[in-house]
Amino acid sequence: MARSIGAKDWLSAHIPDQTGRTVLITGANGGLGAATARHLAAAGARVILACRRPALAAEIGSAAQTLNLDLASLDSVKAAAAACGPVDTVVALAGVCHVPYGLTADGFELHTGINHLGHFALVGQLLDRITDRVVVVTSRAHEFVGRPGIGKLMPADPGWRTRRYSAFDGYCQAKLANLLFANELQRRLKAAGSTVKSVSAQPGWADTDAGMHSGRKWGDLSWRASCRAIGQPADVAALSITYAAAADDVVGGGYYGPDRFFGMRGLPAPAKAGRAATDQALMTANWVAAEHHTGVRYDI
C-alpha cells in the first residue's frame, strides 16, 4: 500500500506491488521515460516501451517489451495502437522540448504534433483496452501561456501557420494542451460512468538532455547549466509520474508534481494547475480541434 502523499516521503520503495499490471509508457527511450519504466518494472509491472529504441527493453529487464511508435506520424500511432493488447495504464510522456520550427508527417508543428496530438490519437485508439488510468505528463511551463510575450493557445492552428513561432512558446502551449486534454478526458470518462481515470503529472526540473535540441549552442549550454544547478536526477524527477501511474490514492482529474522549490524539486504531492487548464471553453475547443486534426473520435 502506498503511503499517503501528505507524508511527503513517497519514494520508489513505496510503489505498490505492480505484479500482474501492464503499463504502456511513451518516450521510454531514455530520461524520464526510462526512469519511470525502471521504477514500475522493479515493482513488478509488465512495461511496454512505446518508443523507437528496441534495445532499451534489455536494459529494463525481462518484464519489458517494446512497441514501435513514432508520435510524429499518425499512421505510426494507428499501427502501434492496433498492435497493442489490453493495458492497465498508459503514461503519455514522450515529447520534444524547445526545438526549432518543424512539421510532423501530418503537417503539425513538432511540439503540438508529438507532445499533444500524437498522444490524443494514441489514447483514443486504445481507450477500450485501458482498464485503470491514463497519465498525461505536462509541465509547469503551461502556466506561461497567455502571459506577456507568450501567445494564447490556438487549437485550430496546429501548424503555427497564422502566428509567429518561438520554441519556448511552442513548448508551453503544447504542455497546456496536454493538461486540457487530461482534464477533459476525465470529465468525459466520469460522465460516461467509466471507472478509468485520467490524471496529469509534471516532473519539475529534471536533469536530462530534453532541452538540448534548440539548434543554438549557447541555448543548449545554458539549459545544461540550469539542469545541473536546479534539476533533479531523472530517477527522482520521475517519481511524480510514477506516483500518478501507480499510487492507490490518486484521484481522477488529479494533478501531481514535486512539493518544493515552486514545484521544481521534491517528492510527489498534489499540485495546482494554472487557471487556463480548467477553462471549460478552452478544454472543449482543444478537444474538438484534436478530434478534427487527428480524425480520432472517442467513444465516450
From TrEMBL:
* Any one GO molecular-function label of the UniProt entry: oxidoreductase activity
- Domain Ketoreductase: start-end pairs: 21-208
Gene3D superfamilies on file: NAD(P)-binding Rossmann-like Domain
Q: Which InterPro entries match?
A: KR_dom, NAD(P)-bd_dom_sf, SDR_fam
Q: Which UniProt keywords apply?
A: Oxidoreductase
Q: Which Pfam families match?
A: adh_short
Question: What is the similarity comment for this entry?
Answer: Belongs to the short-chain dehydrogenases/reductases (SDR) family.
- The protein in question is named KR domain-containing protein
What's the source species for this entry? Mycolicibacterium mucogenicum DSM 44124
